[in-house]
Design brief:
14 helices; 11 strands; single chain; 45% helix; six-stranded mixed sheet
Length: 339
């Protein structure tokens, strides 16, 4: 029988690693948040899984220091629960779990796509569908018997559209074409130029191309898009309508695969675009979902996504609902917000 090492801090190391930011949290077995840290995006598809996981080490060390252990010997905690963006295929999940096991962070390790963390944050158990619309877009569904509904989520190659990146790039596409005559008029052109303090949307594109404007700032265009849509701009409204359609298409397909279209089931909505709770988008999603899946229960998660990873970790340790309630309270959300 293999001897399991004793962890320094019994509990969970929760990791939520997204495209734009990464959060880690050390959680005690009673649900107490012992230490946290935040860093940049997680991009194993660019630098490899081992390098991406190794890049988490400073954040783990920072959280451990906040928990009172700036250095340690042996294993830090009982379980690592990692909900990771770009862990879209089983082979990717396996490679990332193996990379985690090479670090002395947890006695055991689990890896799931970050959308499963969103689903757990918005539900009390393994039943429902979640759609994340943040930098990108993805959807998962889960039943109590372990059956899942998933999408490859590899971008345009697998039919995906939207999220902050998709909305920003498509807004730029319309804005530049409006300026040069290839497309119809839209207030996006003026608004995008003004937002970045440049003379035109074309100038914004050139600044990004030449490296004068960091490409990561393009996500700011999403706020511009909603502001222009509120003014009644037809192109902006069509983009938001298209995004709502994509969100509901994902949810309805997942519900159908799990035979939940005719049963009450939560549909958890999260990620930066949805968590901003823009009425133009949420009202559209709610109306489309009510028509396609009348019994679905839309919920918006506004808590930090690391909450879901932490709850999954506590589930793994089977510590009970009291610890989960304490954890939710720490993140100032005892229940998801109804959409």
């Amino acid at each position: 029988m293999t001897h399991q090492p004793e962890p320094l801090l019994p509990g969970v190391l929760a990791i939520d690693a997204g495209n734009s930011k990464t959060d880690v949290a050390l959680i005690g077995t009673d649900g107490t948040v012992l230490g946290t840290a935040r860093g940049g995006g997680f991009e194993p598809q660019k630098i490899g899984g081992a390098a991406a996981v190794a890049g988490l080490a400073p954040l783990v060390e920072q959280a451990a220091a906040e928990a009172g252990h700036p250095s340690w010997n042996g294993v830090l905690t009982s379980h690592v629960s990692a909900c990771l963006a770009n862990a879209d295929l089983p082979v990717e999940e396996l490679a990332l779990r193996e990379a985690l096991e090479s670090h002395p962070w947890g006695v055991s390790n689990t890896v799931a796509n970050d959308t499963f963390g969103l689903l757990r944050a918005g539900t009390d158990g393994p039943l429902g569908v979640a759609v994340v619309c943040g930098a990108g877009i993805n959807c998962v569904g889960l039943l109590p018997d372990g059956r899942t509904a998933r999408f490859p989520a590899l971008g345009e190659l697998t039919g995906d559209w939207g999220g902050g990146s998709g909305l920003a790039v498509t807004s730029m596409w319309h804005a530049v074409r409006a300026e040069d005559g290839r497309g119809g008029p839209t207030g996006l052109a003026r608004a995008i130029a003004e937002h970045f303090g440049l003379p035109s949307a074309g100038a914004v594109a050139e600044a990004v191309h030449l490296g004068h404007l960091p490409s990561v700032r393009l996500h700011e265009i999403v706020r511009v898009l909603f502001a222009v849509a509120v003014e009644g701009d037809e192109v902006a409204l069509e983009l938001i309508d298209r995004q709502a359609d994509e969100i509901v298409r994902l949810a309805v397909v997942a519900l159908g695969r799990l035979e939940l279209l005719d049963a009450p089931a939560p549909v958890v909505l999260g990620g930066g675009v949805l968590a901003s709770r823009q009425p133009l988008l949420l009202d559209n999603v709610r109306a489309r979902l009510a028509e396609a899946a009348p019994l679905a229960e839309p919920r918006v998660v506004v808590a930090p996504p690391v909450l879901g990873a932490a709850l999954l970790g506590l589930d793994h340790l089977a510590v009970g609902t009291q610890a989960q309630d304490r954890l939710r309270e720490a993140y100032e959300t005892d229940r998801p917000v109804a959409a």
